[in-house]
Structure formats: C-alpha cells, structure tokens
Write a structure and sequence with these properties.
- The chain has 347 residues and is α/β, with parallel strands linked by helices.
- The protein has one domain: 3-Layer(aba) Sandwich (Rossmann fold), CATH 3.40.50.
- The protein contains twelve helices and eleven strands.
- The protein has a five-stranded parallel sheet with strand order 6-5-7-8-11, with helices on both faces.
- Helix 3 packs across helix 11.
- The chain is globular and about 75 Å long.
C-alpha cells in the first residue's frame, strides 16, 4: 500500500509538472538593467501568463515585454516611452496585441513605443527611471507616455523608488519549476500573491482579522489626494525635459453588482489634473468615450478578473483603443519634439 501511494504521488507530480505550462504562469529571473536602473525580467526569456488571459510574452532588451528589437537603424519616426503598471505591461495578451505592437501596426511603423511598464510600479518608479534614461545615450526618447488607469499611481507620497534586487528570488525562479513555486505561494500568501497568509489550526472566528467597517470604508480626503497629485506633476516637470503625454483610461465602464456603470466617479480629480497639465505643458488624451463606445456594442475592452467579467486588465480591444489615442499626437510633435502650448490639455 505504501509503495502504491508513493508511486501515485510521483506519477501525479510528474503529470502536473508536464502539463503545468498549460495552466501555471512562469517565473522568470530578474536582472539589474543599467540603462533603466531597475530590476527587469531577464531579456530573451518567455513569460507565460495563465491568470486573466492566456498568453506568452517575449522579454526584449531592457526588460521590455513584447518588444524584442530596437529601431536603431530607423532614423525617422517618433519614439515614445510607455510608462504604467500591469495594465500597460499587457502580459495577459499576446505580443501582437500589446500597445506597442498595435501602435507600430496602425502607424505603419512611424511611431515606435518602448514599453517600460512594470507590474506594481507607480509614478515614483517612472520618474526615477526617466531621470536615469535622461543621462543615458543608449536609448533616445522623443516623449514620455503615461497610461493612467488608477489615480493611486499618481497620488502616492513622493518617495525614492525601492529598486533593491533580491538575488534569492531570481535564483529560486531559475532553479525550481513554476508549478512548485506557485504551490508554495498559494500556501504562504493570500489570493493577491503578496499578503502573507495566516495559517490557523483551531475552530472559531478569527478575531484578529476583524476590522471595523468605518476603517475600511472611510474615504480619503479629496484635498490630500489632489495635493499629492499636484506635487507629483510638479516633480515630473522639474525632472523631465522631454514632452509628456497622459492617456486617461480608467476602469470605466465598469460592471458593479451586476450593473454597468459609465460615469467616472473621479471626474473631479480629472478636471484638476487637466488644469495642472495645461499649466505644465503636458498633453492629455481621454480614452473614456472610445472605451464606452466599444462596450456599448459588446466589444468589451477589459477581460476577466477572479472570474468576474469586464473588470480585469485591458485586452486586445482596450489596447487597440489606447494605441489609437497615441495616433492622435499632432504631426508637429514629431518634427519639433516640443509641445505647442496653445491648448496642451486638449483631448
């Protein structure tokens, strides 16, 4: 009986190991990229994503997801650095459906996008990398594009980016199979993959985890959020001498409690944001109308998240809409590489 149990365990583990690439995401080692000054996924590797979406991403130079070459040989065209979090990173869709590829295709390769977005980043990370790129001659960038999906990325306190590379994590990713790493993560962390799970072995309610409703639902004062946004934009203007373009693509429309909501609850903050951008000479592109139009005809711009439709990351449709927004950059932008300040916040 013991022998059969051991054989069954080994055969079951082998079956899971062989079939895991179909169902389990990959874990890729990270390296320190001197050009960007941050830890990036190892160039030349393939990154599988099997959560909300089913895709394999090729990691290119400087850790760029889906972009395996640089257009050094092309003297023309507009070069845009794309900054954002996992929404702009786009690992849940194939490389041909990512924002950079769709911009290149729609512009007949006249606009080149460098996808520098990384999951979990916010404006502190982007501004730090922009400062590093500014002092590096390897990559020439004509303008910086920021994809705004959640305001929390721009309303954080000003702080230095924490870019310490943990060699042990990269060693684990390179040594152990992905299904084993994922199994351990599922045991030690909660569903978000980062919060440490508290293992309990006794019955009864877990009183230590109970929090008051008031503490969870109390909203942050609007003034504090607006002041932090203003401070981050001023900081960006001081540390970035290249033109900046913001693409506003929040999680609107949204499906909440079975109802589709089209109104943006953060319109007040967007209005303040546009005024700040106008003062600083930044461009603002608003993708909300295009996202809403696509959703109304059944072509939803976002995929699944935790089994719920329409609240996940941008899919091929959402990326196409964002790419089309970048095509609206004025032609004078490519020639002068300086924004005209007659109406910089015009959509």
């Amino acid at each position: 009986m013991l022998c059969r149990w051991i054989v069954g365990m080994l055969l079951g583990t082998a079956l899971v190991g062989v079939t895991s690439p179909w169902f389990v995401r990959s874990y890729v080692p990270r390296i320190e990229d001197p050009t960007r000054g941050v830890a990036v996924l190892q160039p030349g590797s393939d990154y599988r994503w099997r959560s909300e979406g089913y895709a394999t991403t090729q990691i290119g130079p400087m850790g760029m997801p889906g972009k395996v070459t640089l257009e050094h040989e092309d003297p023309g065209g507009l070069r845009l650095a794309l900054w954002g979090d996992s929404q702009a990173e786009g690992v849940c869709v194939e490389d041909r459906e990512k924002i950079a590829a769709q911009v290149a295709r729609l512009s007949s390769n006249q606009i080149h996008v460098y996808p520098f977005a990384r999951s979990g980043d916010d404006c502190n990370d982007w501004i730090a990398q922009i400062t590093t790129l500014r002092d590096n001659d390897l990559v020439h960038v004509d303008a910086h594009v920021f994809l705004i999906v959640e305001w929390s990325d721009w309303t954080v306190e000003i702080a230095d980016a924490d870019e310490g590379l943990d060699p042990s994590r990269s060693k684990i990713s390179a040594t152990f199979p992905a299904f084993l790493i994922q199994a351990v993560r599922n045991i030690l962390t909660t569903g978000d993959g980062s919060t440490r799970r508290r293992l309990r072995f006794r019955p009864g309610p877990d009183r230590s985890q109970q929090v008051s409703i008031d503490s969870e639902t109390s909203g942050e004062p609007r003034l504090a959020k607006a002041e932090r946004l203003s401070g981050q934009l001023e900081r960006l203007r001081r540390q970035c001498d290249a033109p900046c373009i913001f693409v506003y693509a929040p999680l609107i429309p949204a499906i909440i409690d079975g109802e589709t909501l089209f109104n943006d609850p953060d319109q007040w903050l967007f209005d303040r944001f546009r005024r700040h951008c106008s003062a600083h000479g930044f461009y603002v592109l608003d993708a909300r109308d295009a996202m809403t139009a696509a959703a109304r005809v059944g072509d939803w711009p976002r995929g699944f998240h935790n089994g719920q439709f329409g609240v996940g990351h941008y899919n091929a449709t959402g990326n196409r809409i964002i790419a089309e927004q970048l095509l609206e950059i004025p032609d004078r932008f490519a020639s002068s590489v300086q924004p005209q300040h007659d109406d910089p916040a015009k959509d």
